[in-house]
Structure formats: structure tokens, C-alpha cells
Amino acid sequence: MGWLALLLIGLAGWLIWTGRLQRMTAKDGMALGAALVGAILAAKGKPVIGAPLLMGAALFFARQGRTRRKRAARVRQPGAQDVAQARALLGLSPDADAQAIRAAHRRLIASVHPDRGGTEALAAQINAARDLLLAQQRTVDRGD
Question: Among 69, 85, 140, 143, which residue is least crowded by beta carbons within 10 Å?
């Protein structure tokens, strides 16, 4: 069981080193902490206390993985209304090409960028509208 404690400590170090620990939720951090404590207790000769902590953390992460995969599978595809809203936000007609989309984006983002007194939320909406319309344009160009 000593190797398991070293493995979990190494995993925690890797998570910190790569910055992935910053993207973890509080629940993820608590489960990782429980796994580390459980591994250390099991390595110290107290498997009655350590094993349930390790098993609970393993079950938590297994369930989290299934939940994240389900969420990723439910990603909503943009509809006609989303495209129409993006065009209205950028002030574009339905027949605008990729060059017109980029030009409208540059014009708008220059005036609402956070460095110029705009808000991050509005800049993000304009960027998302550009990305959506360019993706749709690529789809049309391919003939999908």
C-alpha cells in the first residue's frame, strides 16, 4: 500500500504542476484529499480507516467522469435563431461571407473591447457570434 500513497502524492504534485488543480471544483479537491489521507493511512498500517476513504474517492471520480461525459454528449447544436441573433449582433445580412464577418467583428470589437472601456461579457458575445458565423460559413462552403 506504500506504493499507492506515493502514486497519489505524485498525482497531486502533477495536478499542481500542470495547473489542472486550479480547474478542479471544491468537491474534486475534497475527494482528492480524502484519497491522499486514505492512502497514507493504509500505508501506515490502518487499512480499516484508509480503505473506505480510498474507495469513496474512487467512486466519486468514477461518477464524475460519467457525469462529464454525459454533459459533453448533450452539447446543443446552434439553431437558426442563434445564427440570426449572431448576425443581428454583428449587423450582418444573411448573405455575408467570411470576409464580411471578420470585418464586422473587427469593427465592433475595437469599440467594445475591455481595454477601451467595454465589458468582457459583450466582447465575449461578439467573439462567440463571429465564431458561430464563421463555423456556419465553413459548413456552407463544404456543402454539408
Answer: 143
Per residue in 28-38, pLDDT tens?
Answer: 778 878 887 88
| Biggest CA-to-CA distance, the chain | 71
Q: How far is CA 105 from CA 3, 89, 96, 119, 138, in A?
A: 54, 10, 12, 15, 17
Evaluate whether 93 touches 108 at the Cβ level (below 8 Å).
no
pLDDT at 42 over 90: no
Please give the model's pTM, rounded to 2 decimal places.
0.47
- What span, in angstroms and rounded, lies between the C-alpha atoms of 99 and 85? 19
For the chain, which domains are there? 2-73 (no CATH), 80-142 (1.10.287.110)
Write the DSSP symbol of residue 22.
Answer: G
Q: How far is CA 122 from the centre of its chain?
A: 20
Q: Which of 133, 119, 141 is nearest to 90 (CA)?
A: 133
Reported as a pLDDT band with limits 50, 70 and 90, residue 26 is confident
CA 104/CA 140 separation, integer angstroms: 19
